[in-house]
Amino acid sequence: MHKLIKNKALYYLTIASILAFSMLDLFKSILFGRFFNTLENKNTLSQMVKWIVAFVILMFFVETIMKGLMVYFKYSLRERLSQDLYESWLALSPDEFQKTDTSARINKQTNEINTIIDQYVTSKLNIYRYGFLFLIGSLYIGTNSWILLLFIYICALSLSLFNRTFKTRLESNQKEVLSHQKQWIGVLKGFCTNFLTIKDYDLDTKYSSRLQNQNKLLSKVTIHSEWLKQWVLAINDLGVNIIFFGESLIGFYMINQNLISLSVFMTIIQASNMVINPIGWYMEMYNNVQSSSVVVDGYLKEVQKRKHQKKLLNEPIQSFLLKDLVFKRKEKTIFDHFTLQLQKGKKYLVVGESGCGKSTLLGLLSGTIPHPHIYANNIPTNALEHSSIAKQLTYLRQSPDLLPGTLEENITLWQTADSNKLNRVLDQVHLNSLKSRLHESVQEDSLEISGGELQRISLARGLYNIKDWLFLDEAFSALDEENAKQIEYDILKNYKGSIISISHKLFDENIMLFDEVIEFTKQGVNVLSSLEYLQKRKNSLHPIKNQISNNESVLPDKR
């Protein structure tokens, strides 16, 4: 519990309010016993009624404060747990973050934090409450009859030992429920992301059956887990009833033997509610804590991972170096002892067939894919904080994302908009049609724009927030040739920083604006000047034209 708590002052104040309310519960028992001694005395009875009214009002205020503090403590803790969780995610590198499935992260953010608060923390607070009641009630009963107290303690110890025998099974059941919840969320995610494929291939019945099977499995393990908890709870209730009636029989015997008076016995009976009832409640809360502790352990493991201390690069990146790089992905060799240096201020075009490693190159350079043989200013990028590179790099991907907010916020990234700069950027990427929609609140799944417009929003975002290095990964793929040619030309002509651009849409006029071309081939990676690459490109096209010409000459005349 203490490992979860951040606001210690609020925590201890909440515990103090629980203790105060528990002490008032004992005072209620004493007041109840005194009430029996005043039934035949009207004056004393009148005074007692005033005490009772005052006590009821006091108890109402104390209980209100206690419950208010408990609610405030739980919701402030929920907020802090969520914050710690997403801050731990933000501290990860892109490569580390992508190792965990999105649905698993959403499950941890919602179901697991709810379980921690609603089962673990709430049960812990109630355990404190019932523990205080038990101790304070025991103290009063013990001063009046050690025999009754001994009987209660023996029964309470027996119930406690009984509940402990189910600790392992309760934890195991909770793990199984969590596992099936993750599988269920995964199947639902697959349904949502592949809905068009399901409809295209008429998989409605098959996928519905798969959903139903997973749903049944989740219900089965959840019912089994809850049934065990309820069965243990029923045994605890049985034990509480045995304690109550056993205590009553012992008490009546002691009254007959003139060992205690009726009024004292009635006070003990009332005080014993503070001891007997909390035994059953405590066992229920204890079982909740045991079954949910596995969730708490998983959460703490997530947010308290030791992070390697990485360096901050405070100087401008003058060069990137790939030195004797060997890199494989899924047993396929992408780079085999490859060396390449990229200098600040130059513009590089990256070309080659799909799947040859062009996007991997940008991922390695940006630190998205960590590797010890990639250097920025001769410092290995995997030893640097990812933010050190990101602050100097604008990375435009082929499939851009929309962020929550307005179109304008998606471009300015929540900075105060410079209207002149914003208009200039929108003109540069040919997005005049969206100027009237900049303050629209957008959602990625409901935005009514084309793929080309979405890619131009990404371009506008990159140009508005331009940095020293610009990475373009098929950033013009969704544009028609005319727009792609004009926007690329404008960027190459006017941007003074460094550019590394992957493209399949090649235009001779634009190629001439690059300093070097990095060409991926089946034989390896070549680095050419733009003139050398254009000449090679023209030579590779001439045989095709000659082939077409020769084929035409041998075709029979159809006239």
From TrEMBL:
It holds the Pfam family ABC_tran. InterPro entries: AAA+_ATPase, ABC1_TM_dom, ABC1_TM_sf, ABC_transporter-like_ATP-bd, ABC_transporter-like_CS, P-loop_NTPase, Type_1_exporter. Its main location: membrane. The keyword Transmembrane applies. GO terms for cellular component: plasma membrane. It is found in: Cell membrane. GO terms for molecular function: ABC-type transporter activity; ATP binding; ATP hydrolysis activity; ATPase-coupled lipid transmembrane transporter activity. Keywords: ATP-binding, Membrane, Nucleotide-binding, Transmembrane, Transmembrane helix. It is a multi-pass membrane protein. Residues 13-291 form the ABC transmembrane type-1 domain. This is ABC transporter ATP-binding protein. The chain crosses the membrane at residues 9-31, 51-73, 132-162, 231-255, 262-283. PROSITE patterns: ABC_TM1F, ABC_TRANSPORTER_1, ABC_TRANSPORTER_2. Residues 320-547 form the ABC transporter domain. The keyword Transmembrane applies.
